[in-house]
Amino acid sequence: MRQNGWRLATGGWRPHKALRDAPRWWQDVTRSEMKGSGALARNALQAASLKPAACSRIVGLGLVAARPEPSDAARRLNLEGVPVTRLDEIQIARDPEPPVEPASPPGQRWIWALGLLAFVAVLAATWYWWPRGEAEAPPPEAARTEPETAATPALPLGSPGDAIDVPPLDETDPLVRDLLGRLSSSPALVAWLATDGLVRTFVVAVDNVATGASPAQHLRVLRPGEPFRAETRTGRLVASDATSRRYDRLADAFVSLDPDGLARVYGTLKPRFDEAYRELGHPDGRFDAAVERAIVRLLQTPVPQGDPVLVEAVESYRYADARLEALTPAQKQLLRLGPNNQRRVHEHLRVVAQALGLDASRLP
């Protein structure tokens, strides 16, 4: 027979095995309760002073959880000032729970969020306008500006195309090879026509130039095989003659294309150009506007009188002229062709633009 952790054995009540290691004062309290001696229980409890650690041991032994419901008289007793005679009348208080801070109202959270955004905006503005280093700022005329053209050309670009059924976009490569192959047999053009996805590649390259980005990553097949080299000439660091000649075949390929023939091919493939342009995230699908912006950007690229002076950087070179260094990556790509090839491209590009239907007044 067990009661509150004690078992009845010969010779009287003895502690259960689970309580053999319990503190002496607790064994006295429990024994006094079993024997009905209230004075001994009071002395043991007062000696222990019911410290939090002692309360924890009582709770941990599972003895208080099994106690019977205390009487009304016991509820009125103050454990610290009034002695008790029964263990089941003791109310053991646990450590108070840490206070929980009330959540901020939704309105305050929005205020904090807006304040944080405003702080970030101030930091960004400070970083942007704060002077950096001792580098000379480019003149105002060298600032990168968007071409001053209308959202769409005044008239649709391209001449009437061939009266043929244009295949779906994914099946246009054979038609493109046939139409452009009639215009030129340039080795560079032949190499590009041997690739796949010609319409999409052309559209993304034009879109890159229109936004100022370099299209080189989409035209890897046209990349020169020789590396870029610089040399010192009359005390100035410039691109070597061999470096400029690397792009001769690209300039030759472009100027070999008949402008009227290009306008006719453009008119024939225009529905697929617009479709591929929409795939790039332009819902209106007006590829004409991108073509005009790209042509204007290239024609806005200044043609140096001589070889531009270079300054050696960490892993490459930059232009010493701040106006040239401020150009877009697409315009810098055109500069790499060298002054002679750049003039040839500019002259032919103006003729192609007029053949497409761009008014000369809209060109720089």
* Residues in helices, as a percent range: 40-55%
Largest sheet, strands/sense/barrel: 3 strands, antiparallel
With strands numbered from the N-terminus, the spatial order across the biggest sheet is 1-2-3
Instruction: Report the span from N to C terminus.
Output: 108 Å
- Give the strand tally: 7
Question: Helices and strands: which structural class?
Answer: mainly alpha
Number of helical segments? 15
> What shape does the CA trace take?
globular
Q: Which residue ranges are poorly predicted, with pLDDT under 50 across at least 5 consecutive positions?
A: 1-13, 32-68, 76-95, 106-145
Query: Which H/E pattern describes the elements?
Result: EEEHHHHHHHHEEHHHHEEHHH
Q: Could you walk me through the main structural features you see in this protein, from its secondary elements to its overall organization?
A:
It is a single chain. The protein has 364 residues and is mainly α. It is globular. It has helices at residues 24-35, 38-48, 52-60, 72-75, 106-129, 173-181, 187-193, 198-211, 241-245, 248-255, 259-279, 287-299, 322-325, 329-335, 339-356; strands spanning 2-3, 6-9, 12-15, 230-233, 236-239, 310-312, 317-319. The strands form three sheets. A three-stranded antiparallel β-sheet has the order 1-2-3, covered by helices on one side. It has 15 helices and seven strands.
